[in-house]
Amino acid sequence: MAFFLETLFGGLMAGMLYSLVALGFVLIFKASGVFNFAQGAMVLFAALAMARFSEWVPQWLGLESKLLANLVAFALAAALMFVLAWFIERLVLRHLVNQEGVTLLMATLGITYFLDGLGQTIFGSDIYQIDIGMPKDPIFILDGLFEGGVLINQEDVIAAVVAAALVAALSLFFQKTTTGRALRAVADDHQAAQSIGIPLNRIWVIVWCVAGITALVAGMIWGSKLGVQFSLTTVALRALPVIILGGLTSVPGAIIGGLIIGVGEKLSEVYLGPLVGGGIEIWFAYMLALVFLLFRPQGLFGEKIIDRV
Fold it and tell me: Residues 247, 298: contact at Cβ < 8 Å?
């Protein structure tokens, strides 16, 4: 039972991190109706910014406190993501209002390659570390219930708590604020939203800024665990089954989908992997997404699209 709980907790922790990356896709899609292939590049760019600023800030300002240096580095990286969002809206999205979805999709592909090149130019292409002070040593819990206790990773727990707090804040933002309701209106119909006075350009800047902050938090956590390297963009691919499962338009769906994928990967690898030679964790999420595409393409919480003629 203890081993099962360890696997379950590990799956839940991984699922929360998947959800954090998937949120960026959901935010952009809700505001513009386009699937943002640049999200993985945004995660990498934000992680590179955080890693390099955390190295440079102590030299620039002479700070000895690592915590203070990390806070300044985070503020600088967040400001950079804000500026990036403003430029994307000003130079790209503003000129593509009311265009076909495929046009916006191709624009995000162009943004992906631009960010990859810009990140290497500004921050370099080596492997960098992000040290934000999260403890990496595992601990044992529930010693009184199970012999030897249950082994969990402190870093995964803290990362999951941060991810859960950000997800909760974004959910409240979308449901309870005027800006959040405006974002949903823009996603439904660009022209109708403009006709009732919703400033489309400002809304897109806001949502890209929020997606940038989400990418920054995801990049910090994944960079702390894996190191900041250009393979980090593949983390976004791990989020694709999550949004297919939860639904492209649902913030809660990104959460539930991430937890299902995370737990499913770990349990299937541990209990079914030995029967088939292992490797289930690599393809489990994509097979589950394929099943949903066949039988419920809108996902668990997505809106079913009905075209009337």
Answer: yes
Which tokens go with 268? Answer: 């299937």
Rg, the chain, Cα only: 20
Per DSSP, what are the bridge partners of residue 140?
151
Half-sphere exposure of 235 (CA within 13 A, CB side): 34
What per-residue confidence (pLDDT) applies to 74?
92
Residue found under tokens 């727990």:
157
Residue type, 159: A
pLDDT tens-digit map of 13-36? 888 888 888 887 887 777 766 778
Residues of the chain where predicted confidence (pLDDT) is lower than 50: none
Q: Report the alpha-carbon distance of residue 288 to residue 247 in Å, rounded.
A: 13
In one-letter notation, the amino acid at residue 111 is: I
Residue 218: CB atoms within 10 Å: 32
Pairwise CA distance, residues 236 & 109, whole Å: 13
Would you say residue 306 lies in a domain? no
Flag whether 302 is in a domain.
Answer: no
pLDDT at 306: 55
Q: What is the pTM of this model?
A: 0.84
CA quadruple 39, 34, 91, 79: dihedral sign: negative
**Residue 196 belongs to domain spanning:** 2-295
| pLDDT in the model for residue 53 | 92
CATH at residue 25: 1.10.3470
Number of domains in the chain: 1
